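Incident log entry.

Two folding requests arrived from the same account within the same minute. Monitoring flagged them as a possible duplicate submission, but the sequences differ. Recording both here for audit purposes.

Request one:
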Amino acid sequence: MNEILKWYRGMSWLDILANLIFGVLAFAAPDTLISKLGLPYLEYNIWVQAVGILIIALSRVIAFAVSDPGLRPRLNWLMMVVKGLIVLFWLYQISASEYPGSFYGLLAWDGVLLLILFFLLQFGLPEENRLKTADVIWALKAPLRWAQAIYVRPILRYTVFPVLLLLIVVVYQLWLNILKVHPEISYEKDEDQFKYGAIGLGMKARIPLYIFKVLPEIFKEKLPKNGLEGYRSLGVIYEDGKDMPIGFAQRHIGYRSVEPNCALCHTGSYTTAPGGPSNVILGGPAHELDLEQFQWFLYDCASDPRFNPDTLMQYIDKITDMKFAERMIYKNVIIPFAKTSLQGQAVAYAWQKKKPLQGKGRTDTFNPTKFDIFNFPVDNTIGTVDLPQIWNQRPREGLYLHWDGNNNSLAERNYAAAMAVGATPESVIPANFNRVVSFLLDLPPAKYPYAINENLAASGKRIYEQNCASCHSFGQPATGHVTLLEDVGTDPSRLYSFTNQLVDRFHQFNKAPFVFQAYRKTYGYANTPLDGVWARAPYLHNGSVPNLEDLLSKPEDRAQVFYKGYNEYDTARMGFVTAGANAERIGFKMNTIDTGNGNQGHLYGTDLPEDDKTALIEYIKKL
């Protein structure tokens, strides 16, 4: 072995060592490797582990090849081909992934080593073993030679070709039932598209349709005991004649699945009497939805031993007839993958268990983005807020949005919200997404559905213009801008959860159409326009004040404990009913002494005479 080949062998051993470290990490600590690479949580860590095993096994082959490259030249040239394919793979990831920075280091390592090893091998080998044009042509023709060799031998012809045919059939069925993209469902009315159309979330945000349908029957004991059936007990809304709740879109990518859309968190309802019919509030806060409990119902089901192919298929067979191939794939691939995915998400969202319950009508907006998308270390902040309304968006363009006024771009706000629930730049469906955005631009705020005392409201208008309009009416200088925390005095927890580091990370994310440049850190809460305010109870950013009567009272006179998430409306106090047997049975117990739930602050109007407060509330019903 000459000196050049010794250098080649030494550099190859360095490459093998790096590959072994990478492979062992991928197999033994996939979450750590993903985090070190700056990648988001991956739902199927089993694939990362499989890659680790493959790298370890390949390292053994490379070690055998490079131990004496002069003796095994063709095997070493094959290793160069493999290395080249790896370099092409990193190039593809940089061009196609929303996290290109994760792969630059890997590309540099493999790319530089490929060049070094290629030239060392080319010039270290004897002339007859060096790479020539004829060798490249020979390699390209190899598959044709193999096919001919098989065909001329009957024993191979009648074994290999049937196996290949069977393999083709299996691959086709896998493609048909796992990967084939069917046309998206499109609804004639924009309203129905908003309620039931897909905006395009990633695979981990989709649940196989038939699994979704049977879980409430199999795992009844895991649902809330509030007298409501199935997913209704978690606060989702069903319309008459629909078998899917508002806010869930059906898709058909290989297998039929469901995924949430904007309407899940932004559709509410009200009723005028206990047990009476519910009326949908389109674009309003989903004040009945317990999003966190919905998540953990799915996660807890996946951790139950009954979540297995045999049990699930017993129930699925009652609601649909599957062909043999589809059934086999559903049983052996889709159900195990769904279980693995949900269990992985449970690990990713374990941080929620360390924080107070979010409860009905609320969510933690930015901590999921911090911890599960951008891989920030879990901190002790609590970002729980009330779900907002999203109607009447056109006049909001240019105003500072989110509860803390951290962004004044509607487009960025919309894409950030989609990303937080599982959309990626590759998965989002632009036509569907833009259709929903356009619909919301001019969706009118929900009109107050009860009688209004017009004379009293006329008096209230004057009081509103004197005390409220400067911060809460469209076109006023302070509307859509931030009032500092020391002035507004409300609970500070939400402000602490959104950090300067998160602003920087958003601004580094640059994969169209998910481009974020307008984020900022603020130190107060935004003055929001008060349109459709009757349907936006409870009030303040964290939903800690049940009705307008309490909001116009001193903090010590506001309800300290109440039940939120019941949809009977209280016209006198202007809010939903928050006490009594039905509210306690269905609602979430909101305790304002819990961290993040403070009901202090926003003292504006609390010193008004009681008659003026009554008139003001009557006028606000008209907004």
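Request two (distinct sequence, not a duplicate):
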Amino acid sequence: MRISQQMLFNTYMSNMNRSLNNLVETNIQAQTQKKVNRPSDDPVGMARILDHRETLATVKQYRDNIDTAKGWLSLSDATMTQVSTILTRAKELAEQGASGTLTDDNREQISYEARQLFQQLVSLANTEYEGKSIYAGHKVDDNAFTEKLWMTTNDSNVSSRNFTITGNADKTIVVQFLDSGDIGGGAPLDYRYSKDGGKTFITKTLAAGNTSLDFDGVTMDFDLGTPPTNIPVTQNDSNNTNDTSGTWMWVRPTAVYKGDDEDSIDVIGMNTNLGGGRTNAEGSFSKDVVVRIDTATDLASQIEYSYSLDGGTTWTKGNVKPADGVASNAVLTIPGGTLTIYSNTGGGGSNALGAGAQFVVHPDTAAMNVQIQENEYVRINDVGKDIFGGVYQLPGANGASVVFGGDSMLMSSNSSATHNMFETIGNLVAFLETNNQTGVQHCLDSLNLSQKHILTKAADVGGRENRLAVADNVLSSLELNEKDRISHIEDVDVGELMTKLSQQQIVYEAVLKSSSMIMKMKLLDYI
């Protein structure tokens, strides 16, 4: 076969370009230190690299979430520690104030610090992390608590009734009734109050039919028919606030919780045709549950139903409540608890359930959870009233009530201690400011319970912090493992690469030299 100059040239160029391309590819790997720089270098390896990078991105997001959660919980932990320290100081003040050796001036002097401690506790309960309240549930843009006036009395007939107080006072107002009777009744009632700790009193008359007491800037409204008891006539001129005769009231500070709660579960019925039929859900629900009646029936018959945990996008079907033969309450089992549909027989309504009728079980949710691993979440906030107490008005309720119940509004020998911190400190302030030694003594047990409750809640926060630390260590190990696997596929062996680079450089130089020598040779050189 005749070898033409054109064929020689094409062959030389092909060999030269191939050698140069190999040298350039190796040079790129030397620059990037990676043997896979584009999908064509290793299609399967690139797919594995992308999978590992996606895992790394997910791990990074989880670790960012953990950092955020650590910030919230660490601040909460520190806050509760400070609260416990303040309660220790409050107990010291209470022990001093409960001593019979102190004068009224001594208790007044102690009261100034006690009120400052109360205000500091309110400030701590409103602690924010990056501008978000950590104790207000989902209502993170507002303070969890605000200061409010509340009432303590020695009369259980008064403490059991509803009341409202409006206005502000820098010092506890102590109130006595000079007449017995029903507030808002047909006869006027005389009462007196003091705004200087019981040193001087002002006497006023509550007109017949009126339910509002006026304390010069502070107004107190009672339920109609609240029955206060008068003090004996012989004690009308006594300013002894330790006397237990008749109805006494101390209008003193507390804190009202303004965040949201996890106390109730609402049920919303749609297209139920039950008339005035009532429903109720019980259990522990982390999200809304939608319940759908699949076949027309009634409460006494078999009920076929489905439920959805994603707002109706997907349904779990085939659930059955067997027939019981009587028009009784129907209890449907759903994730987290039960839904009860109460019988309407005798109420003029219907017990029929049409196909397609739905019930939405909507729990009050105050928790803010962050994802720290697949299918694993940690709560970062808390409901302030469940930690610090105070008073709270449920959504839709007519008035506020004391958190945890108990006897924080009743000061008597048979009243029990409470772990409601704000109520306890509010009472301590009231009794110190009004020189009530017996009242201060009542506060001591409640202070111990309140501090123990705070420390228990702090332990819960600490447990979540420890869980975050464990999760962070697991994710750190996973991150290192993923990076190692990516490096095994993607990174180049530097020693091997340098050897390869030197070899290809020699090859390329040899191709250039040999090609130039051969291209110089022609037939005329031999004629």
